[in-house]
Amino acid sequence: MVKLDLMNNELTELEPCTFCGLDNLRDLDMRNNKLTSIDGAFGTDRLTELNLLNNPLNDIPPLFFYGARVLKINNKTFIRG
Q1: First vs last C-alpha separation in the chain
Q2: How many CB atoms are located within 10 Å of the residue 11 CB?
Q3: Of 14 and 61, the one with more pLDDT
Q4: Which terminus has fewer CB within 10 Å in the chain: N or C?
Q5: How confident is the model over 41-51, as pLDDT tens digits?
Q6: d(CA 21, CA 36)
Q7: 49-52: strand order across its sheet
Q8: From CA 40, how far away is CA 38, in angstroms rounded?
Q9: Which Gene3D superfamilies does the entry link to (predicted)?
């Protein structure tokens, strides 16, 4: 699986290692949910695009987005060259 769209699902939490084992996942869209934390949900640094817009996130693990080229959080877009 390369792209996964989970937008508008009213997700409130992610279990630890929810996306572990999805080594080919590159594009993940989880905008418009109710997530307050994503800590521990990921086991890959291969994401190139992650969309978390419109989620009431409390914090974001600092080393989490090492591989992401495009990151959308709290109505801001970050693009790494």
Answers
A1: 25
A2: 15
A3: 14
A4: C
A5: 877 677 888 89
A6: 23
A7: 3-5, 27-29, 49-52, 70-73, 76-79
A8: 6
A9: Ribonuclease Inhibitor
Per-chain mean pLDDT for the chain: 83
What does DSSP say about strands 49-52 and 3-5: parallel, antiparallel, or unpaired?
Answer: unpaired
Query: How many angstroms separate the CA atoms of 1 and 13, rounded?
Result: 22
The distance from CA 47 to its chain's CA centroid, rounded to whole angstroms, is 8
47, 67 contact by CB (below 8 A): yes
- At residue 77, does pLDDT exceed 60? yes
CA dihedral 43, 48, 52, 53 (to 10 degrees): 170
Q: Are 68 and 48 in contact (CB under 8 A)?
A: yes
